[in-house]
Amino acid sequence: MKKILMIATGGTIASMESGNGLTPAMTGEELASNVPGIREKCDLTVLQLMNIDSTNMRPRQWLTISDTIMSHYDDYDGIVLLHGTDTMAYTAAALSYLIQDSEKPIVLTGSQKPMGDPYTDAKLNIYQSILYALDDDSCRVSIVFNGKAVIGTRARKQRTRSFDAFESINFPPLAIIHDDRIIRHYTGTIPKPEDLKTYDRLNDRVFVLKLTPEVKADIFYLLKNDYDAIILETFGIGGIPEYDDSFRKAIFDWTASGKTLVVTTQVPEEGCDLKVYRVGREYSDHPGILQAGDMTTEAIVAKIMWVLGQTGDRERICELFRKVINLDRQEYIG
User: Fold this and answer.
1) Are 24 and 14 in contact (CB under 8 A)?
2) For a designed S-S bond to 87, which of 54, 93, 194, 223 qualifies (C-beta 3.0 to 4.6 A apart)?
3) CA torsion angle for 78, 79, 80, 81 (degrees, to 10)?
């Protein structure tokens, strides 16, 4: 019988009414005891790591989760991480960069309604996550939610109330889970034990800036003291305003100072390409400006924190950012 470690961190799945709104209160053991049949499927160990609303999940907690997984990695065949849905996609992406090419599955799940709700989705999500973690073809970091497995760098929470909360962005779901059957849409090479790479540093001085009509370019100068990288969510496929010269000056000043700019789009699907329109082309080959292609913003945030945690050298930053990790950049997949 395979051994599974379930790590509880809080979130809606563990929440109860406090008189002042839902707040995490149930333990991991209590959650596991509410899911019939999982202990007959595997040798299950439950670890309570934290019990927080995922709104309060931060990079320091990502490192704690990663360290905990790796300290128990050799003793288990798979990991299931119970997590709040609001920042689950960020954590899944972060773990994809902190724990790369894991032959063992690291599966995140949670729920839209608390375990104690009579109409909860928590039981099925935990059960299906266990099934997925037990499957011989499962590996690396993924999210299992509402009968769907999504690669850890491609997930986005698209719905705030529906059970079908997560979508796989610009990449097909890994699998659909019906009853006890896992129907795979994507089968890649399972890593070997020697492929595993782990990291323990992140640089959290990363800011996401979404362009809106009439936003002032001066914000680049205001952010200089507190941030080392800006992720710029442009219009459409890569439009940056040129009604005056302010954005050009601010962006080039930012990169000239040695800071990093990652350009993406605020449109969820199909990615960014600065070369298509004149309003983006001037930035397309400029040193210090990285194009994120079809990556999700959640993955970009986690990846650039990981990259800047490893190096401050501009060439190395570009090299690491462009490296495909956990299928995070589809345009580079052969």
Assistant:
1) yes
2) 54
3) -170
Residue 67's contacts (CB-CB under 8 Å, 6 or more residues apart) are 200
Q: Provide CB contacts within 8 A for 310, sequence distance 6+.
A: 199, 201, 316, 320
Strand partners, 108: 81, 143
Q: Which residues are catalytic?
A: 12
Give the Cβ contact number of residue 323 at 10 Å.
13
pTM of the predicted model over 0.90: yes
Nearest-angstrom CA–CA distance, 108 and 101: 16
DSSP state of 56: G
Cβ atoms 242, 276 nearer than 8 A: no
At residue 333, the pLDDT reads 34
**Share of the chain residues as helix, strand and coil, in percent rounded to the nearest 5:** 30, 25, 45
Map tokens 């496929």 to a residue: 237
Q: What is the DSSP letter of 19?
A: S
In contact, 298 and 192? CB cutoff 8 Å? no
Type of residue numbered 270: E
Asked whether 62 and 94 are in contact (CB, 8 A), the reply is yes
pLDDT per residue as tens digits for the range 266-294 = 999 999 999 898 888 888 888 789 999 99
pLDDT at residue 331, rounded to an integer: 54
Return the H-helix or E-strand segment holding 208.
strand 206-210
Contact 109, 125 (CB under 8 A): yes
Question: Burial letters for 27-37: b for 16+ Cβ neighbours within 10 Å, e otherwise?
Answer: ebeebbeebee
